[in-house]
Amino acid sequence: MWGVIKSVLAAFFGVQRERQRQEDFENGSPVAFIIVGVVLAVVLVVVVALVAVQASR
Amino acid sequence: MRKSLVWMTGCLGFALMVPLAMANAWNMPVGVTDVSREIHSLHMIIFWICVVIGVVVFGVMFYSLFRFRRSQGAKASNFHENTTVEVIWTAVPLLILVGMAIPATATLKKMYDASDAELDIMITGQQWRWRYEYLGEDVAFNSNMSTPRAQIQGDEPRGEHYLLEVDEPLVLPVNRKVRFLMTADDVIHSWWVPDLAVKQDTIPGFINENWVRINEPGIYRGQCTELCGMDHGFMPIVVEALEEEEFDAWLAERKEAAEQEAMGVDREWELEELMERGEAVYGSICASCHQAEGQGAPPAFPALADNQQLIDDLDWHLDKILNGVSGSAMPAFRGTLNPVEIAAVTTWTRNAWGNDTGDAVQPAEIAERLSD
Ligand SMILES: [Cu+2]
Q1: Quick check: pTM over 0.90?
Q2: What does the pLDDT look like over B89-100, one tens digit per residue?
């Protein structure tokens, strides 16, 4: 699970280690990546919105 | 090695000289409001950030191309990835962008905050002039370009403010927050005065807001900056910023003149008076389409001179002027000209260029039609 989160975060940032990438593809199913990706995308939006609201006080 | 260093410094120096030389001649103006100054300094900061990035990136690139060329025995290394370098080249632009976004957003917020204005002005774009209404003050007027056609056609030398001069400028006070409510009657126009850092689309059916607080008295010029038809280039903007007391005096004078005009509606006008006024209204409003001699430009713009239906039918004539012709370029003038102006221009078009009907259309008659 932690590995999946790390890979999704790396994808958000746009940089990934080759070794980690190989491991991700041994997993077989993409479902976990999709779910974690969607959840973290929502989290990112909420965080950015909160920061924006806070900063514009 | 020595030689290549000399080359590099030369190139870098040159790359820095070009923007410096351009900065003064073609740069945006600093302007005369706090917001315009902020926008200018943001522009300069971001510009220099871009210059530095450009110089560094291209400097490294050209240096590498030159230093590690094959004729000097350079061999390409063949590694696949370097996470550290990739993280750095992702994080650095991110920081630069956020660093630019924070001050830019702060300025944007100021630009959008039109609250607490001391004066509201409605700005309406029309083909092809601007209309200014001082809301709550009963002062409103059209602002037409005043550059003579002869200059445009090349028969006369161009004046100093060629295509940037108007018959009546927008007069504003300094040191007061003025809110603009901006819309258009026909197509999209855009009200742009660089020194005020205002560039706002005016859209039929929408009201956009903007505001200024001018710091220095003076005359500031601008243009319509949304391609809006044939005479798009001929609807300039002139803003005259006055000291506060001067502005108050000007406004009081204009209010009084408006009252006089309103009183003019009730009295009986002579034919000559109406003709004189009508000629002026025609020249500033109608001539751009129906032409100076009323000959029109068929088929786009019908002739008014020697127009049999116009001569025969006053009702039809007035209906065209008051209500316009929907689906054509002919605007409705009921909202933009006052009864005196409508009566005068109707009288003028019924008697000029051989349309000798002898009709003197009275402002009172127009006022009655308008109230129906
Ligand atoms: Cu326009």
Answers
A1: no
A2: 899 999 999 999
